Structure formats: C-alpha cells, structure tokens
# Entry
Amino acid sequence: MNRSELEKISKALADKTRLRIFEAISATNRMNCGDIVSMRGVTPATVSHHLKVLSEAKLITCHREGQFVYNQAIPETIAAYTRALAKIAAGMKATRRH
# Structure
C-alpha cells in the first residue's frame, strides 16, 4: 500500500459519521442506501457524500440491483491498511532502539 492510499483511508475513517457508516456496512453482508439513511442523524445527501469517500478509499464497493444500491465492505483493504500501519509502527520501534 502506498503512502497516498494510506492517507486516503486514514482521512476517510477519521470522520466519525463515515466511521459509523463503515462499521454498519462491515457488520452486514451488504447494506442498501436506505438502511444507511435510516441511521440517526444521517441525511440522504450526507450518505451519498460519505459513501463516495469510502468508495474512493476502496473501503467499500457499491453496486446497483434494480432500484437499490448495495454497499459492501472490502476486507482486503482493511487488511492491507493494518499491515501498512504495523510496518510504520515497527519502523518507529526500530528507530527508537538506536
């Protein structure tokens, strides 16, 4: 994972509403936009924006089935993100030992 991807994911998950949406999508096999809008405090326009950011960070995938758009988490992205953060943390530990 390159630095740009790492930053994009970090920024996407730094927003509390986006994190909440990502958690909700991750907790299910898939979630449609209507289900996300029904979450307290999230308007349709806000959901659209947040889904776009999560999608651009490759945290979720969106696909249309008839009139509904379904969202699914991409676990591989989180796995790669976690490995990249662990690598950074390991580098910091190595630097401290010198």
Remarks:
- Residues 79 and 85 are 10 Å apart (CA to CA).
- The chain has one domain: 3-97.
